[in-house]
Design goal:
The N and C termini lie far apart (37 Å). The chain is α/β, with parallel strands linked by helices. The chain is flat, with a radius of gyration of 16 Å. The strands form two sheets. It has a three-stranded parallel sheet.
């Protein structure tokens, strides 16, 4: 039914507003637009888990997060995330202000998507995810 989320005729915008791991977070990524909080990250395994596996401690979590490219700024640079929403200094410290910034960012992205024909959005979405991991 046109106009329903998941339908190619409906803009699929979503946010990844914080730490994201495993299948539920990764399943949110295939969308027309992906937004992330500045301190957000997305990975199948949290950095602490990767550190525990590789180094047998969690002391190397930040180093592995940088190497894995899972931070919101890394995801923006690689084209997985479209917009990074600022946190001052952390969304938990300013929930109302952060929610307002996030709401404005979502509204702007949805408005922009409304002006793009469904066939173009779908083609762009498919191309985007075909290119993930390619140089």
């Amino acid at each position: 039914m046109p106009g329903r989320a998941g339908d190619p005729g409906h803009p699929d915008g979503l946010r990844a507003a914080g730490p994201g791991q495993r299948r539920p977070a990764l399943a949110m990524v295939p969308a027309d637009r992906v937004l992330a909080a500045l301190h957000g990250w997305l990975a199948p395994l949290p950095p602490e888990g990767a550190s525990a596996i590789v180094f047998r401690d969690t002391d190397h979590a930040a180093e592995l997060a940088a190497a894995q490219g899972i931070r919101s700024t890394d995801l923006l640079a690689s084209g997985i995330v479209d917009v990074v929403v600022a946190e001052h200094p952390d969304a938990a410290d300013e929930p109302v202000e952060f929610s307002r910034r996030l709401s404005r960012a979502i509204a702007a992205e949805v408005q922009a998507l409304r002006g793009i024909p469904a066939s173009e959005r779908l083609a762009a979405r498919l191309q985007r995810y075909r290119n993930i991991g390619l140089p």
